[in-house]
C-alpha cells in the first residue's frame, strides 16, 4: 500500500529542513524563488497532498464556507451556488451545501452542522417556514462571519446580497399594464420574508403610478409553489369582478397559474396575462413561454462570496452592516404579450 508523502519526505529528498519545505509550499516571502521552484517540483513528482486538517489547525482556518439553501428543487439556487463555487475555488475555498427543505428545524440543523465543521463563514437563504431567527443571531454572537443572499431579514442586521425586489415587481406589474391588462392580481409569498413584502410593495406602487385603484381582493396569499399558482387562479376566477392578469411572486407559482389556465382552456396571453419572477430555466421552454424578471443568479452568487470573503478577511474587526442590491432585468416573453 502506497504511504502518504509528507513534508519530511520532501525535505529528506532535497536535503533541507522540513520548515523550509513548508514555507516554500505556502510561498513564504523569506524563501527564494529558486528554492520554491525546486520544492514544488519534487512535491509534484512525489504526488504530495497537503494535510488540510493540520493546515487548518495551524492557520485557524478550514477554507470551508457553509451555504444554506431552502431547496435544491429550484434551479435558481443551483445557479446561485454556481456563482459562489466559481469564486470560492479561485480563492482556495471549498463549499459545504446544506438544504433546509423550507423547514426551520432543518435550517437550525444546517447551522449546527456548519458550526461543527468549523466553517470560516456561512452564506444563508432563509426558509419560507422560518419565523424564529435565533439560530442566525447565535452565529453572530459566536463571531462566525455570516451573510444572507436572496431571502434576508433586515431586523437581524446581518449583511446581505439580494435583487431589488421592489423594482423588479414594479417592472413586472408595469409591463402587464402596458400590455393592456387592467385587473392585475398578485399571488404573494410568505410575508415574514423581506423579498416577498418588497414584491407586494412594488406591485402596489406600479398600480398607483398608473392610477389603477388597489383592490385587496386581487391579492392571493401563496407559499411559492406550483399549487399556490393553481389555487390563485381558481380564487381570482371566482371573484365577481374577475382578474385579467397575474403577477406571480416567482416562476414556479407562475407555472402553476399557467397550468390551471390551460386546463380551463383560457387563452394566454389574449384572455389572461401571466408574469413571474426569477427567470428560472424552464420559463423559455414552456408554451406559452413565461415572461419574468431576471434575478441575476450567478452574479448574486459571486457577490455573496465576495461579501463573505470580505467578512472572513476582517474577522475580529468592527465591520459595517452591508446591503448589496442588484438591479433586475425584465424578460418579456409570450405569456404577457397581449395581441
TrEMBL record:
Classification via SUPFAM superfamilies: lambda repressor-like DNA-binding domains (SSF47413), Periplasmic binding protein-like I (SSF53822)
UniProt keyword terms in alphabetical order: DNA-binding, Transcription, Transcription regulation
GO molecular function: DNA-binding transcription factor activity; transcription cis-regulatory region binding
Keyword match Transcription: yes
PROSITE patterns from the UniProt entry: HTH_LACI_2 (PS50932)
InterPro entries: HTH_LacI (IPR000843), LacI/GalR-like_sensor (IPR046335), Lambda_DNA-bd_dom_sf (IPR010982), Peripla_BP_I (IPR028082)
Keyword set includes Transcription: yes
HTH lacI-type domain segment(s): 5-59
Name of the featured protein: LacI family transcriptional regulator
The organism of origin for this protein: Flavobacterium sufflavum
High-level lineage: Bacteria, Pseudomonadati, Bacteroidota, Flavobacteriia, Flavobacteriales
Amino acid at each position: 500500500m502506497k504511504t502518504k508523502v509528507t513534508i519530511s519526505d520532501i525535505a529528506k529528498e532535497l536535503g533541507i529542513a522540513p520548515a523550509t519545505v513548508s514555507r516554500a509550499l505556502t510561498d513564504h516571502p523569506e524563501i527564494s524563488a529558486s528554492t520554491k521552484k525546486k520544492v514544488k517540483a519534487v512535491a509534484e513528482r512525489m504526488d504530495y497532498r497537503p494535510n488540510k486538517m493540520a493546515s487548518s489547525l495551524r492557520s485557524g482556518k478550514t477554507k470551508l464556507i457553509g451555504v444554506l439553501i431552502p431547496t435544491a428543487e429550484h434551479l435558481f439556487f443551483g445557479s446561485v451556488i454556481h456563482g459562489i463555487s466559481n469564486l470560492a475555488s479561485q480563492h482556495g475555498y471549498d463549499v459545504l451545501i446544506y438544504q433546509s427543505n423550507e423547514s426551520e428545524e432543518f435550517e437550525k440543523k444546517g447551522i449546527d452542522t456548519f458550526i461543527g465543521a468549523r466553517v470560516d463563514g456561512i452564506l444563508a437563504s432563509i426558509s419560507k417556514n422560518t419565523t424564529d431567527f435565533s439560530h442566525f443571531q447565535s452565529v453572530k454572537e459566536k463571531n462566525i462571519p455570516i451573510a444572507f443572499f436572496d431571502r434576508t431579514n433586515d431586523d437581524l442586521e446581518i449583511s446581505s446580497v439580494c435583487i431589488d425586489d421592489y423594482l423588479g415587481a414594479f417592472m413586472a406589474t408595469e409591463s402587464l399594464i402596458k400590455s393592456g391588462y387592467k385587473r392585475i392580481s398578485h399571488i404573494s409569498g410568505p410575508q415574514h420574508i423581506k423579498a416577498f413584502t418588497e414584491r407586494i410593495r412594488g406591485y402596489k406602487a406600479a398600480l398607483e403610478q398608473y392610477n389603477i385603484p388597489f383592490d385587496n381582493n386581487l391579492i392571493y396569499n401563496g407559499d411559492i409553489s406550483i399549487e399556490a399558482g393553481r389555487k390563485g387562479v381558481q380564487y381570482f376566477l371566482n371573484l365577481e369582478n374577475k382578474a385579467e392578469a397575474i403577477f406571480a411572486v416567482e416562476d414556479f407559482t407562475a407555472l402553476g397559474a399557467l397550468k390551471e389556465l390551460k386546463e380551463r382552456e383560457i387563452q394566454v396571453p389574449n384572455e389572461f396575462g401571466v408574469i413571474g419572477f426569477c427567470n428560472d430555466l424552464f420559463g423559455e421552454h414552456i408554451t406559452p413561454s413565461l415572461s419574468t424578471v431576471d434575478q441575476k443568479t450567478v452574479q448574486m452568487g459571486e457577490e455573496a462570496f465576495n461579501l463573505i470573503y470580505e467578512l472572513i478577511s476582517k474577522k475580529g474587526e468592527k465591520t459595517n452592516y452591508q446591503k448589496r442590491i442588484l438591479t433586475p432585468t425584465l424578460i418579456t416573453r409570450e405569456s404577457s404579450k397581449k395581441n
